[in-house]
Amino acid sequence: MPSLKTLRNRIASVKATQKITKAMQMVAAAKLRRAQAAAEAARPFAERMEQVLSSLAVGLPAGTEGPRLLSGTGSDRVHLLVVATGERGLAGAFNSSIARLAREQATRLIADGKEVKILCVGRKGADILRRQFPKHIIEVVDLRSVRVVGYTEAEMIARKVLDLFGNGGFDVATLFFARFQSVISQIPTAQQLIPAQVPERADDVPVTPYEYEPDEEEILADLLPRNLAIQILRALLENQASFYGAQMGAMDNATRNAGEMIKKYTLNYNRARQAMITKELIEIISGAEAL
Fold first, then answer.
1. For the chain, what percent of residues have pLDDT higher than 90?
2. What torsion do the CA atoms of 62, 67, 69, 74 make, to the nearest 10 degrees?
3. What is the pLDDT of residues 23-36, one digit of tens each?
4. Which long-range contacts (CB under 8 A, 24 or more apart) does 274-279 make?
5. Which one of 66, 148, 150, 182 has the largest count of C-beta atoms within 10 Å of its C-beta?
């Protein structure tokens, strides 16, 4: 059994760790409220943008394919995977779940004979994917210096994707992120960005006729790049809320585990101390009887 000094040191060490995890849990809870509000505020705008694109796509003249961001290149040989994860750890399975979904997609595409390129947004995702796909990662976007993620960062990432697409770098682009559902639930999600997937109009929804000026194709050519940045912004905001939710849960579990370890070490310490006292009493009594 460890000595009393060793047990005291272990108890002090776990208590210090417990204070850190408790503080991190409280910080994550405070940041989660603001991040959750931002993510929920971005959803209606992104969904409305998709509805507008759907209405414009339906209104295209027959035989018109529309802009390349909507119609694609006509091939699916080269795939770009935009994997958005966090810049920091200590958030449970948040980063690994997104990377796992992207890894499964990449493995499946490579098995089908497709070429895969990976654009990592976040250092943690790059660290995970680099173990299996080091030659497929073309760039890592580092957002550690950004305090609050906004449209500027989303537009910068969208510009990288558009430049690569314009240069013929890929045919299909898919975005991977975690959709925030609750503090205990963050859903890894894959969303195709290029060619843009616009939602189909429901049959029971009345079709309202619109006259566009300029025509639908020209409006789509202007809106599709903006939609790409908006969808990336929504993914970044969803990721931020999911990260703080996952970190809050992970630090809560760590705090409770530390409390259980403290109880265990305290019990062992008391037993060792009692055994030492009992041994000393036996030695005193035995010495007194010997006299």
1. 26
2. 60
3. 998 999 998 988 98
4. 276/4
5. 66
